[in-house]
Amino acid sequence: MNPTSVTTPHGDGRAFAADLLRGHTDTIVLGILRGGDNYGYEIHKAIRDAAGGDHEIKEATLYATYRRLQRDGLVESYWGDETQGGRRKYYRITDAGQAVFHNNVAAWVATRRIIDSLLGARDPMEGHGQ
Amino acid sequence: MTDETIRSTGGDVHRLLDEAFLGIEMTADAQDLKEEVRVNLLARIAELAAGGHSPDDAAVRALEELGDIRELLGASAAATATVPQGWAEAVERHRVRIKPSSVVGAGIAALAAAVGLVVALLGASRALPLPVGVLFPLIGIGATGVAWIVGEALARETTTKHPMPIKRTSGYFFATLLAAYGLGVGGLIALHAIPLWATALAALGVVAGLVLFAILGATQTNRRKAWVRMMRRGRPRLTRRFADEPEVAVRFGIYTTVTWAVAFAGFVMLGATIGWAWSWLCLLGGFVVMMLTIARMLFRSI
Question: Model confidence at B28, in pLDDT bands (50, 70, 90)?
Fold first, then answer.
């Protein structure tokens, strides 16, 4: 499901995967928001759960991402109406965000095909994922 | 994790966030970011605690996961373009250019000061055949030039300071004028160009100038620019008792006036009786008393 979670048996692969993951933070956040409006903690949790264990994307990076996406008009934010423990700041993907997400996914799929063929790698998840 | 522990951990998080945001201008934007981070941190801490971590351990881990808080604030600053990073960038962003008119004004004033004082000096040393009556206005021109430079420099806005209000600037102008005039007349006396009785005139000018300076200095408040204060936060703070307690500044003004009135009376009296060669010690005494008063009042012993 998540191609970048593939790692080598050796630890070195993790750093490489983390770099790749960080390069796609914007798209990943947009992808999570496609499943519904969400707030910082849940978005980070979704990434943590998918990446498994170590925290490849720091929360600090995510805050920068939210601000960038907002500035570019790809997401918009609003405050929730929770009463206990403070209000959450929710993010909602915009139509422009949807369009950018689709473009980025198409680019990723094309890139992955090229890299796979160049590296002679075969995703063990192929045929099950997506 | 009970409500109590959540609350105490929340308090810690709030304190840690306060520290992290210290020195950041609390715009609505920064306030929003802080609130957002706080709520998300609390949620993560609760999750970690539910997973078996102790509340303290959970707080530490959640903050670690947050990452470099400075990086976060840096990103926020870049996004909002309100908080400059580092001194050089801040100076670049807030640079105030000097007006050509103030450069020309300072140039003319410097020229007037130099010409006035040099011609007076030449006249006093008999190099130029000038009547004594002309020396006083020449010293006046020189002193005005010096006072203009001081006043203009204070009234001008620079990169690190606001322009001083015109009334206070005038105060410094007159204080400098009086002191410079007094010193100039003192110089004429030293060159034996004018009679010794003029010492009273010189001393009056210097003393009046010093008193005015002391009053202006004591009532000065800190009006440096907000961004400069922000960049300098954390450095040792100078005492600001006179600014914080105006009545202490008033008291200092009264002490100073009395000190100098007594010193000046003593100066004239000793000058007329013992001689002018030693009477200046009264003025020195007055100055010493004034400085000690400043020091003691600033450090709150009186």
Answer: confident
Please give the domain boundaries of chain A with CATH numbers for all domains.
3-117 (1.10.10.10)
Write down the domain spans for chain B: 3-82, 96-205
- Contact at CB, B32 and A89, closer than 8 angstroms: yes
| pTM as predicted | 0.43
| The two structure tokens encoding residue B6 | 């959540």
d(CA B298, CA B286): 18
**Which tokens is B150 given?**
């001081």
pLDDT at position A52: 73
User: What is the DSSP annotation of A50-108?
Assistant: HH-SS-SS-HHHHHHHHHHHHHTTSEEEEE----TT---EEEEE-HHHHHHHHHHHHHH
Chain B contact present for A22, CB below 8 A: no
Tell whether the model's pLDDT for residue A127 goes beyond 80: no
Residues in chain B within 8 Å Cβ distance of A67: 75-76, 79
pLDDT tens-place string over residues B49-84: 898 888 878 887 887 777 765 555 554 444 444 445
Q: What amino acid is encoded at B159 in this protein?
A: T
Distance between start and end Cα atoms, chain B: 54
Q: Distance between CA atoms of A63 and A40, rounded to whole angstroms?
A: 8
**Where does the pLDDT of residue B157 fall: very low under 50, low under 70, confident under 90, or very high at 90 and above?**
confident
Which whole number is the average pLDDT over B14-31?
Answer: 71
- Flag if B79 and A60 touch (Cβ within 8 Å): no
Q: What is the spatial distance between Cα A100 and Cα A94, in angstroms, rounded to a whole number?
A: 10
Beta bridge partners of A75: A93
Nearest to A63 among B38, B65, B75 (CB): B75
* C-alpha–C-alpha distance, residues A130 and B163, integer Å: 65
Return residues 87-106 of A near B (CB < 8 Å): 87-89
Is residue A119 over pLDDT 80?
yes
Mean pLDDT of A58-66: 86
